[in-house]
Amino acid sequence: MEKNNIIIKKETPTDYNIIPLLKERWSPRVFSDLPISEADLHTLFEAGRWAASSNNLQPWRIIWGVKGSKAYDRLLNCLDDFNQSWAKNAPVLLATMFKKTLPSGKENFHALHDLGLFMGNLTAQAQHMGIAVHHMAGINYKKAAEEFNIPDDFHVTTGVALGYYGGNPEVLPDDLKKMETQPERSRKPQEEFIFNGNFTDRAKI
């Protein structure tokens, strides 16, 4: 382990047994200094490539940059201030997007779902390789579209920070440091979003 890297283990109190790959995954805001090789990045993208998509249209598109490169700096500059404050710790940044229309020109209502499947595959592959993935809603999609000459038919959806688990939480502001070192993860109970029949009044809308 590198000198200033601290591996944080999170407790995941599942109600049913799930595979360790999913149970151990979480979204850190500090990362190991260990770089992610281009070959390993392409392994992650290959995992995403084989995700299911409606009519096999594969509407996802990804822009990536490794820390120290111009592409990385341009991606970082498209994140909101809050995310820039910690995402600068990540060895790799991505911007994700999807094609909004079908070949017919009609709206592709399933494209965002398909991008989610791509990122689900990528995230699972990353976890298998010891790489953490932190998805961010806080990206200025209009700024990113202009910065990277993205056609109007594509919508920039998320920023993503990638890096090996590790790093020192002391580099974070106090509020984020507390979140980073909190020992237990939490999720809504299934009863709030799973229904065997009608959508019920237990749903949190």
TrEMBL record:
<feature type="domain" description="Nitroreductase">
    <location>
        <begin position="80"/>
        <end position="164"/>
    </location>
</feature>
<protein>
    <submittedName>
        <fullName>Nitroreductase family protein</fullName>
    </submittedName>
</protein>
<keyword id="KW-0560">Oxidoreductase</keyword>
<dbReference type="InterPro" id="IPR029479">
    <property type="entry name" value="Nitroreductase"/>
</dbReference>
<feature type="region of interest" description="Disordered">
    <location>
        <begin position="180"/>
        <end position="205"/>
    </location>
</feature>
<comment type="similarity">
    <text>Belongs to the nitroreductase family.</text>
</comment>
<dbReference type="Pfam" id="PF00881">
    <property type="entry name" value="Nitroreductase"/>
</dbReference>
<dbReference type="InterPro" id="IPR000415">
    <property type="entry name" value="Nitroreductase-like"/>
</dbReference>
<feature type="domain" description="Nitroreductase">
    <location>
        <begin position="22"/>
        <end position="65"/>
    </location>
</feature>
<dbReference type="GO" id="GO:0016491">
    <property type="term" value="F:oxidoreductase activity"/>
</dbReference>
<feature type="compositionally biased region" description="Basic and acidic residues">
    <location>
        <begin position="180"/>
        <end position="191"/>
    </location>
</feature>
